[in-house]
Amino acid sequence: MLDELLLLIQDYGYIALYCLLALGIVGIPVPDEILMTAVGSLTSGGGPLSFGKSLAVSYAGTMTGMLISYCLGRTVGKPFLYKYGKWVKLTPERLEKTEEWFHRYGLWTVMFGYYVPGVRHFTCYWAGVSNVSLWRYLVYSGSGALIWCLSFLSLGHFIGVNAPRIMELVHHYIGVTVFTIVILTVIVIYFYIRHRRKQADLP
């Protein structure tokens, strides 16, 4: 499937990237993390894509999908999602799990739900169902989307052409969630050490 998606990006460029990520967030089966990592690899070593443009388009596509999901959740409500959500992977079991997370962690579920496959597609709908303020929703979802896009694009950019295959192996054997937590931990430690060194260098 990844090869077909990359062919779409090769033929239609950033428009295809935007549409694929928007549809993936809404619930259409798109391997988001693997796709993002593959796109990141296309920005390294003189690749056909620009890292800056890829980040901007990925972020716009992700936020479009999140806004569509939020508006649908707010418009159609809980009964409709339980009845017809299965057509976009919103099974009753997953909806119940997401509802439990949402009641426990609130909008933090939206922000960090990106990194939990099978959850991020539902948190947006549930924010709409719960009548969360649009501006509060945009702050949390926008922050999470930016970190998510930057994480996987950067990963693909630095790993290079082998990034998609590595991500497929990771997804198969240890799961994207665990791998993402490791990557984010490394990034946080890196910037923490960098900040401490800058403070140490100050007179």
Class derived from helix and strand content: mainly alpha
Measured between the Cα atoms of the first and last residue, the distance is: 55 Å
> Helix count?
10
Helix amount: over 70%
Q: What is the strand tally? A: 0
Name the shape in a single word: globular
Overall description:
With 203 residues, the chain is mainly alpha-helical. It has one domain (2-168). The chain has helices at 2-12, 14-26, 32-41, 51-84, 92-105, 108-112, 120-129, 134-159, 163-173, 176-201. Helix 1 packs across helix 2, helix 3 (32-41) packs antiparallel against helix 9 and helix 4 (51-84) packs across helix 8. The longest helix has 34 residues, at 51-84. The radius of gyration is 18 Å and the shape is globular.
Which descriptors would you attach to this protein?
203 residues, mainly alpha, 10 helices, 0% strand
